[in-house]
User: Fold this.
Amino acid sequence: MRHNRVGEQKLFKLFGHFSFIFLLLNVSLQAESFEKFQTTQAKLYVQYQDQSDAAFHNYLKKEWYSYTSQIPQSFYKKSKPENLAPTVAKKIKSVGPEAHIVVKKKQIQKFSSPEIKENAMQVAYFGASLGFSNIESIKSAKFYPLNQKGVSVFFTLLASSPYEELLDELRATKKRLRLNDWGMYLLIQKLSQSYYRGLDEARLLTWFLFNKLGYDVKVGLASKHIVLLFYSQKSIYNTPYYIFASKKYYALGDYAKKTKKRVYTYKKNYPNAKKAFDLALPVLPILPKSREKKTLSFVENAKEYTCSFHFNKNIIAFMQTYPQADYATYFHAPLEDETYNDIAKDLKEYLDGKKMSTALNFVLHFVQKAFHYQVDEKQFGREKVMFSQETLYYDKSDCEDRAILFSYLVKKLFHIKIIGVQYKDHMTTALYIPMDGDSVKKGSRKYIIADPSYINANIGLSMKKYKKVQPERFITIN
Assistant:
């Protein structure tokens, strides 16, 4: 036992010597690291690419404020009906000029694979493989400590890096792929996640790049994690938002989350970052082809009719990512050119030479009967407004999806003025045409109801429960 104690004493003594030596080495290394850190920090201030970044870095170190998210907005005041009873089919009075559908041949823009440089940061983007500069100084940035100071340090590291290469590549990709703001959000998000494994670092890079591209985007802290807040002039539904100086900033990363969240953030914007984030989709992105075909059929006057069309599955995948934008976004978004041309050719065969009332009614019945009615909560587990392209792709849809598709077809095929008509729990459309029937008044004009969800209903027939109800609002369609 005595021998063991002597051995232990010698061991502890020896360990003490090692500990002391280790401590000296550690202090020396820390001093060296701190000296390197100070040198690096000094260089960072000299190497700012933009002189305004030094001032913004100092501003980020000042007091941050606490904000609580607002309750996400909903489309409807009441739940949409889960079942809609059809009406009795009746023949419509044949009136108006003859329909002549013109199918214009448009040159369909094809995706061309960009050249990817050696050692590039590769990003998979809806069937495309894209390459971006692999910048070591950006890759080495870390969000630490997990607080306000960590944000300002991270900003400094990015602001002193050669980030302009990435910005130029992002601008070029945006133009080449015809990306809207949502397309850019997805692209920058994917790029940032390629740079970092950590979600917080990826969000900080996303914030930095959007600010440098001129967008009004803030970064906040919630439970030591990063939250991105995008300023939007238009409502983004089912998404928590925060109000700064009467402006709404949406937490897109918390889409479809109902819980309130408190964030700490700053008040001022990044210099010259004033652009509002806009979900409008005036043109579809140019993506690689993943071509598929679908045929829709319906029965009209005891005869079956079919419409076949081709579509790009990558476009569908892109649309599936969308948060709930305002209705105008969906009503104004186009179909793929190939999809529209295919459908227009089939409808032209059925409708050319028919009276306009008959032709319009045929298209209305096509939208009513070619799909099964089902509310979004049952199909997707949440409210999801679909673009026209998605409505054609899915076998089931509800009222606003059909209203959006019908309005697009009427606008393109017949060049007739049409509006969206929203009630507390329902969406339909109305046409500016000289016909009799149930109507709504918008301004000085009377519009005739055409309900794409009321199966067998002709133009001019509204559901009984809405006949004497004032709509909540109208959606103007250009």
